[in-house]
Design goal:
This protein is mainly α. It is built from 3 helices and no strands. About 90% of the residues lie in helices and about 0% in strands.
Length: about 100
């Protein structure tokens, strides 16, 4: 998930929070509910982006492991090292995705 996506989701959540607060302050139940709904949409979009990134990172780790094993079986140290590097890159991205 890009920084831009995180900012977009945070902005949508903040806008929803403001709407909810304005609805409470003015006894406008519709505006308050609108605000809560917007916050939930932002949370759902954030969770979906996070899940998509997790799948992508796990795939990268699996591909790296396959290369590492293939390199070990064929005595190709370069392929083995490249596979290990891809695994580490996938793990690092996954760690940052939290």
């Amino acid at each position: 998930m890009s920084v831009g996506d995180k900012i977009k989701h945070a902005a949508k959540g903040a806008k929803g929070k403001a709407k909810e607060a304005a609805g409470k302050a003015t006894d406008n139940e519709h505006l308050e509910a609108d605000g809560r709904a917007e916050q939930e949409q932002a949370r759902a979009q954030h969770a979906a982006d996070k899940a998509k990134d997790t799948a992508k990172n796990v795939g990268q780790q699996a591909e790296g492991k396959a290369k590492q094993v293939a390199g070990a079986v064929t005595d190709d140290e370069g392929l083995e090292a490249k596979g290990k590097g891809e695994q580490l890159a996938g793990k690092a991205k996954q760690h940052l995705n939290k």
